[in-house]
Amino acid sequence: MDRLSGLDASFLYLETPAQLMHVCGLFVLDPSTMPEPYSFARVQRQIEDAVRDVPTFTRKLRRVPLGLDHPVWVPDRSFDIERHVHRLALPTPGGYEELTSLTAHLAGLPLDRSRPLWEMWVIEGYADGRVVVFSKMHHATVDGVSGSNLISHLCSLSPTDAPLQLEEPQPHGREAGPMELLGRGVLTNLTKPVAVAKLVSPTTQLVSKTVGRARAGTAMAAPLTAPRTSFNGTITGHRSIGFVDIDLEDVREVKNATGTTVNDVVLALAGGALRSYLEERGELPDESLLATVPVSVHSSTRRTSGANKVSALFTKLATDLEDPLERLAELSERNKHAKDHHNAISADSLQDWAEFAAPRTFGLAVRAYAGLGLADRLPVAHNLVISNVPGPPVPLYLCGARIEALYPLGPVFHGAGLNLTVLSNAGQLHVGAIACRESVPDPDALVKRFPAELATLKAAVAAKDLAVPLRRRRGPRAKAAPDA
């Protein structure tokens, strides 16, 4: 029996019929590399063999009586692979439009909380004989890094190899009775005042230091300062999806020539694509869009339990700047400040405070926020979430089929109905966009701008003498207001 961490449980409490907290992956597979002819039954059986001894795939939630503590994981004694791995056929002609429409529908369906919180849809009939696997895993079970590791566990390095093994076997936890769960819940609540007291002093110091950074102009961008766009309101449960590929080597070429980072370049591409997209729709705000960027703290946290070991920083995307090099320089400078600011904050700060998320109170607050339409009335906390997840540097195979592409898709929120996630895979960057359909009905029109933005940035780099690292060009347009 494993208790969910406060951060893991928070993703359960955040969930509503419109605000679904699962993460998705869209795998495009080439079945011609499979040792035997493609068969759904064989794929389903191989996935069952791979997940059988991995608790993340075979455990389910159990609530603590009276909601006194976060839920616990218990083994699903009736685990059945047929409840998790399903088969679908893509409508003709089986192209991009049909695939994004079908997967958007699947992304808008909630996971069944009476079972392990994941499912896969094997979709046949995609272009050129490809097979697509669309996976869904609840954010309470994985973050970007742990999700990538679990996916790797299902894959192999060649068509005939066995799937990669986890570093250590993960034992299944035991089940606990209602009275034991109730007792643990009471004990947890009795110790909360002491735990809160321990956090007050470091949090007060953090606020003081943040104010100092803001005055010096070296703080990360502040939330609640984002301009409003069409995707910054109350969302529905309908989803829309788009995806595209860009060459990782081209991104590295720009990175090396400008003295920036891959993440800087990715954010600059996102900023350029969003600027162009909003400008075409006649709603480009004068102020820059503000993005939340999840940051993995797996290597720095003191916590050993829990799936989500993540923090976040805020950064402006320089969508108010037309010149691509100026945008990249601005982002690079802001990101350095944001990273320095983030690194000065305890890696466990978010997880520590999340422990006090009361199930009933948290859930009620989320439902009230959605039901009252407060996302349409209150200041915009942030415009969107952008994630950059490291993936495998070499080709991987799922059930013997080569993974040609893997598009990650994160959750969207009331007030931020657009999510962009980028994953590196064997020399490519796979860009996935998911949104509330009513807010962004055409996310493909957004992500399809990434290749053009990269080409424009490469051309600008080639045309400019960059013998020294890129620096932000200061001028009347370049002056920015303090972030916090």
Question: Could you characterize the architecture of this molecule?
Answer:
The chain is an alpha+beta fold and 484 residues long. The protein folds into two domains: 166 residues, 2-Layer Sandwich (Chloramphenicol Acetyltransferase); 243 residues, Chloramphenicol Acetyltransferase. The protein is 36% helix and 20% strand. It is built from 13 helices and 16 strands. It has a seven-stranded mixed β-sheet. A six-stranded mixed β-sheet has the order 9-16-15-12-10-11, sandwiched between helices. A hairpin with a 2-residue loop joins strand 13 and strand 14. The C terminus is likely disordered. Pathway: Glycerolipid metabolism; triacylglycerol biosynthesis; Lipid metabolism. Its EC number is 2.3.1.20.
Index terms:
484 residues; 16 strands; 13 helices; alpha+beta; globular; 7-stranded mixed β-sheet; 2 domains; 6-stranded mixed β-sheet; Chloramphenicol Acetyltransferase
Brief rundown of the structure:
The model is unreliable at 473-484 (pLDDT under 50).
Which shape, going by the Cα principal axes?
A: globular
Give the number of domains.
Answer: 2
The CATH architecture assignment of the largest domain turns out to be 2-Layer Sandwich
Q: What's the story with the biggest beta sheet?
A: 7 strands, mixed
Helix content: 25-40%
Order of helices and strands: EHEHHEEEHEEHEHEHHEEHHHEEEEEHH
Strand arrangement across the biggest beta sheet: 5-6-7-2-14-13-8
* Rounded Rg: 23 Å
